[in-house]
Structure of BNR/Asp-box repeat-containing protein:
Amino acid sequence: MGQMIQLDDELIRINTSKNCIEYSNNNGRSWHNRSMASSMMGTMQDLINNGKELLVTTSKGLYYSSNKGRSWHKRS
């Protein structure tokens, strides 16, 4: 588990100060916002590559994304 992963040609990370998912397609030289955590998700903690989807653990549960972190859905 961690706050940054490699997925295809992108680095994807949790920016803890902004509580958002960011991506880089130039090996981390610059970062771009991919999605913000809503108040319903809580604080993002860990980011996991689970093969066909990304998982993020938050203070309010486990969420998954099948589109590189553009949108998130609660895993029940």
Q: What stands out?
A: The two ends are 20 Å apart (CA to CA).
